[in-house]
Amino acid sequence: MKKKDRTELTPIEKRVISTVMDIRADLQPDDIYYQHSVLCQTVLPYRDPGDDVKTWKRVNGNAFLGIQATEAFNPVTKDFEPVGLPFGPKARLIMMHLNSEAIRKQSPKIDVGDSMTAFIKRIGLGTDGRTINAVKEQLKRLANAQITIGFSGEERAYQHKGNIISGIDLWFPKTEEQRVFWSSFVRLSDEYFNSLIDHAVPLDERVIGAIKHSSMALDIYAWLTQRTFRIQSGEVVFITWNSLWEQFGQGYSEIRMFRRAFRDALNLVKTCHNFNVREVEGKAPTTAAGLELEYSQQPIISIGYSPQRLAQAKKIAADINPNDDKATKKLKARVRNQLKRSEEKANKKST
């Protein structure tokens, strides 16, 4: 029997290497995904918590997330049936996709027919029946969940309570030829949509595609993108392993097992994007172990549609410096092109 070549790269390793090469060759991605800033700080379940678990609560600093499983009407049985909590990487990917489509179209109503199919193909998920059914199941769970999401601070607070998805029309064709494509739309609640516009965090599609198999890696990537960008230049933020365990350690009864899993996921994320993060060994009893974070530029600059982001983009685009390196000039040109397209769309709407 021929021994397996242990030097051969796994499909995940091949995907990550391809992503890294693509990112280094081109400063900006072809597409941008978005996640709500609260969902960058709190996390969904990694695995199916089971039918008996009806609630899910997470708090991280000022951000909080609560999910309540509900029932949905089954047109086949003509009765209400329990729907479980959303979980796993596919639920996270679906939320990113819905957020991104809503921001691109500047509308809470999203056609998830062709767009969802294109999304599944673009990030490299299979288009087999099993994968499509899994995506539909997570979409159903997200649509029916009662979700409380928000943050609290000394000067202001925000809370959304209810369905993130306020309306959903799903039609799942039964023929094999139509299995991948479904005609349907999803409508985000107006309150969530308005909050998303002001609190969306841009994420690189290429990184998402490389780490799509790992819920923890997706959570770490979204968290670091949001967290390190808020750190002041020259400032160092220290986070203990106990705090990380509380934030990301669901399902890990021992911190040593969590640290091992977290390090693997963090190394995967840092391979795709070089965040300024390093591990610090504690010297008990005076010094705790954990991570040190410093400012990291977001992998991509997103204009968004809020006045603050638009003003920031215009400032970047107007700053034409002959001493800029090639990468910086390319970035500013990209921003100017985005501004031009946004203005053209606005002019079309006004006429």
Question: What is shown here, in short?
Answer:
The chain is α+β, with helices and mostly antiparallel strands. It contains twelve helices and 14 strands.
Detailed description of the structure:
Strand 4 (71-74) and strand 5 (79-82) form a beta hairpin. Residues 175-183 and 301-309 have low confidence and may be disordered. The protein is α+β, with helices and mostly antiparallel strands and 351 residues long. The protein is built from 12 helices and 14 strands. Helix 8 packs across helix 10 (255-272) and helix 9 crosses helix 10 (255-272).
Structural class: alpha+beta
Approximate helicity band: 40-55%
DSSP strand tally: 14
The total number of structural domains is 2
Provide the descriptors you would attach to this structure in a database record:
single chain, 351 residues, alpha+beta, 2 domains, 4-stranded antiparallel sheet, 3-stranded antiparallel sheet, 12 helices, 14 strands, 21% strand
List the helices and strands and how they pair.
Elements lengths: L10 H15 L6 E5 H5 L13 E6 L2 E6 L2 E4 L4 E4 L5 H18 L3 E3 L2 H9 L6 H16 L1 E7 L4 E6 L2 E7 L11 E6 L1 H10 E5 H6 L4 H15 L6 E5 H8 L6 H18 L4 E4 L9 E5 L12 H12 L7 H25 L1
Antiparallel strand pairs: 1-11, 2-3, 3-7, 4-5, 6-10, 7-8, 9-10, 12-14, 13-14
